[in-house]
Amino acid sequence: MSGMFDLAGKVALVTGSSRGIGNSLARGLAGAGATVVLNGLDAGRLAAAQAAMAADFAPGRIRSLAFDVTSDAAAADGIAWIEANVGPLDILVNNAGIQHRVPLLDLDVRDWDRVLATDLTGAFLVGREAARGMLARGRGKIINVCSVQTDLARPTIAAYTAAKGGLRNLTRAMTAEWASGGLQINGIAPGYIHTGMTQNLVDDDAFNSWILGRTPAKRWGTVQDLVGPAVWLASDGSNFVNGQTIFIDGGMTVVV
Ligand code: NAP
């Protein structure tokens, strides 16, 4: 049974994995056996992340490549480099993302464009380039990292909400065209995750109480909570799961 979730011999790219959720997902996929390519913008931070992770795995299992997911040419070059230097890409996790908090009336179109470019266009560009080889080989897994904002809005994060809603439908569009070619494309939608980035919100009594009251599971999520669903969607255990977005949110999006 566990062989169904074994990723030994698979090559995975996790965009935006120099830190945060992407880094934890990359570690989880490597733990399940995959050779993992880390990615980010800042080459120094990426090298440090690779060194930290490489210590825990066999030589060559953790690779890295800095490139900007919003660049058409960089995405094509990045996928080509991986296929030539690491191996045929089996798993892509489109995780790179940014946030920008400002009321909608004050939202500058340049900030709107920046968020859409990273959180939505980046998944299209890297996904399209990855799919070329995956379709030629007749297999591949793409996991798009969505959010509870894929389904629910909140004030001050309009661009992010629009991008993450779009990412769910991009997941469906990829499925419509590529599922017949042997690919499974799905989304994971993390809820509120307790990380270094959200520690200030955890420490804020009012916000923390709101989260606990709003979440049927009565707790914050952890990065570890995301790993099981990601490994499942990257593995043969999900071979007939197509175009779905799995909310990993303690039930937040199913209650009012
Ligand atoms: P994070 O800690 O801010 O890390 C973002 C990562 O994306 C970094 O590795 C960053 O690289 C990389 N990145 C940003 N722009 C990029 C670009 N243009 N090209 C390549 N890499 C780029 O973010 P996070 O909180 O872990 O979030 C990761 C994903 O999960 C995002 O899609 C986010 O929307 C989603 N998410 C997060 C939460 C949460 O609670 N944190 C909840 C739901 C969904 P550098 O280090 O080089 O900047």
In short:
The chain is α/β, with parallel strands linked by helices. Helices cover 45% and strands 13% of the residues.
Explain how this protein is built:
With 256 residues, the chain is of the alpha/beta class. It has a single domain, classed as 3-Layer(aba) Sandwich (Rossmann fold). The protein is 45% helix and 13% strand. It contains eight helices and seven strands, in the order E-H-E-H-E-H-E-H-E-H-E-H-H-H-E. It has a seven-stranded parallel sheet with strand order 3-2-1-4-5-6-7, sandwiched between helices. Helix 2 links the parallel strand 2 (35-38) and strand 3. Helix 3 (72-85) runs parallel beside helix 4 and helix 4 packs parallel to helix 5 (158-178). The longest helix has 29 residues, at 109-137. The protein is globular. The structure holds NADP nicotinamide-adenine-dinucleotide phosphate (NAP). The site of NADP nicotinamide-adenine-dinucleotide phosphate has 30 residues, from helix 1 and helix 4.
Q: CATH superfamily, please?
A: NAD(P)-binding Rossmann-like Domain
Class based on secondary structure composition and strand pairing:
alpha/beta
Strand arrangement across the biggest beta sheet: 3-2-1-4-5-6-7
Q: What is the number of independent domains? A: 1
Radius of gyration: 18 Å
